[in-house]
Amino acid sequence: MQIISSRILPFIDSPSLMPGEAREVLFRDASGSFPLYLSNGEPDHAAEERVIALGVREALVWLNEPPQDQGSFWA
């Protein structure tokens, strides 16, 4: 598995109004698919982590998202 790109997204936690940082990492595996790892940056006991399998088109969309649209795969 190879890392294609990663980014850190700052956010404000709505219940506590505390700043946080989410992490998104796009990989490419041996079969040519693109797993996208998402982590909300919380401490281990409260972390929300997901892996989403992206196709080539979705991976290109993720890579080329403008800054104001980054984080769109969290919805």
Give structural attributes.
single chain, 75 residues, mainly beta, four-stranded antiparallel sheet, 1 helix, 11% helix
Report how far the terminal alpha carbons are from each other.
25 Å
Radius of gyration: 13 Å
3D shape: globular
Q: What is the oligomer described by this structure?
A: single chain
**Percent in strands:** 35-45%
Low-pLDDT sequence parts: none
Structural class: mainly beta
| DSSP helix fraction | 10-25%
Q: How do the helices and strands follow one another from N- to C-terminus?
A: EEEEH
- Our count of domains comes out at 1
Tally of helical segments:
1
Strand order of the largest sheet: 1-2-3-4
If you average the pLDDT, what whole number results? 84
Major pleated sheet: 4 strands, antiparallel
Please provide the count of β strands: 4
Description:
With 75 residues, this protein is mainly β. The protein has one domain. It is built from 1 helix and 4 strands. The chain has a 4-stranded antiparallel beta sheet. The chain is globular. The two termini are 25 Å apart. The mean pLDDT is 84.
